[in-house]
């Protein structure tokens, strides 16, 4: 029994610090400081965890907000594109009108190209032009009579610088709007082809 020593319960006044009796003010302060530090560390860690969670929630909300904000910009891009195309159409119409006024021969070139699109055996051509362009054509070409194979008709629905030609079997629309639409469609279609190749 030399190797074993008997252990007795401490008396009620002992602090567990190895001596008996009431705690000294320094020991109480040390114990209080230790409890405060443990509570502070636990609170700090809980606060950090709560802060990280709040930050993750705010980041998620910000991402959702940014995604929602990009949708109107996509719609705005489409609207701006449409407005730019409208502006281009307006500018081209103005330029074409000025070009026709300054070089009336241009309308004859347009008419010639349009008539050339028709089958060669076409007869009884009806040429629809804007009233101002009709006057230019009459000033340059002799007036149509019963022997000419064509007849010029004023049509306010045809814009300046354009024409429509029709026969009994065919019709060619060479209005400025149609030609611009074809140009824009070829440009837009060309961009799609380039995107598909990349």
Would you mind describing this structure in some detail?
The structure is a single chain. The protein is α+β, with helices and mostly antiparallel strands and 198 residues long. It folds into two domains: 25-102; 104-197, ATP synthase, E subunit, C-terminal (hypothetical protein PF0899 fold, 2-Layer Sandwich). It has helices at residues 25-102, 105-116, 131-140, 176-197, and strands spanning 125-129, 150-154, 163-166, 171-174. Strands 2-1-3-4 form a four-stranded mixed beta sheet. A hairpin with a 4-residue loop joins strand 3 (163-166) and strand 4. The radius of gyration is 46 Å and the shape is rod-shaped. The relative contact order is 0.08. Residues 193-198 have low confidence and may be disordered.
Comma- or semicolon-separated keywords:
alpha+beta; 4 strands; hypothetical protein PF0899 fold; 198 residues
DSSP E strands, number: 4
Number of spatially distinct domains: 2
Give the terminus-to-terminus CA distance.
92 Å
Considering DSSP H and I runs of 4 or more, what fraction of the residues is helical?
A: 55-70%
Mean pLDDT: 75
Outline type: rod-shaped
Could you give a short account of the major beta sheet? 4 strands, mixed
